[in-house]
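Open question from group meeting: does this chain pack into something compact, or does most of it stay loose? Before anyone orders reagents, we agreed to write out a predicted structure and look at it together. Recording both the input and the output here so the notebook holds the full record.
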Amino acid sequence: MSISPLLFISLICLAGGGSLLPATEAIWLTIPSSGEKCVYEEIHANVVVVVDYLCIDQNNIGLGPTVDVRVNSAYGKELYKKTNETHGQFAFTTSETGTYLACFWMHHDQTHYTADNSTAVVNLDWKMGIQTKDWDTVAKKEKIEASLKGVELELRKSSERITEIRANIIYLRFRESSMREVNEKTNKRVAQLSFMSLGICLVVSLFQVWHLKRYFLKKKLI
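Structure tokens returned:
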């Protein structure tokens, strides 16, 4: 079975990290005093996502100004919304494949914060897939012996990662198939349009020849 270059590159990425993007991402956002700042991630279905956020002040010790938070699913469904927060966590399991959006903006009332609050800095710890699991809790729940804890846990992590890679490969094959289908449909329509244009040109040319011949015969030029 031949593998396309795109799928081959994607498989290399998957083998290195289990996902096309890092499973854990540290993100820093600078929130302006007006307007919002959003971060988005394209995630396929049935993936657990856990995000911790913290609003800080780089110039002063302690927590910074407060922000409002909203998270939307790929089809616009609101998954999480909080107001006047300095820190928090939101978690969800994706129900459909698509782009998930998390937006932050300054809370309208900043009277509690006396420093310059023209901007806010938010740190995001974005985790997906097996990175969201608490493996110490798993070990205690399944009563894994301490002497075997390291090896057995690593085997469990490897098994989970293989499952995640397999799911990503299936998703990539589906995307490749969909894009190939769209490409074939587009090529077919372009070919149809080209034949149609050629046919119209031939008809117009024949009409011009007929019209000129009729004109010259009427004027007795030929």
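Observations to bring back to the group:
Helices lie at 5-17, 135-141, 146-218.
The mean pLDDT is 79.
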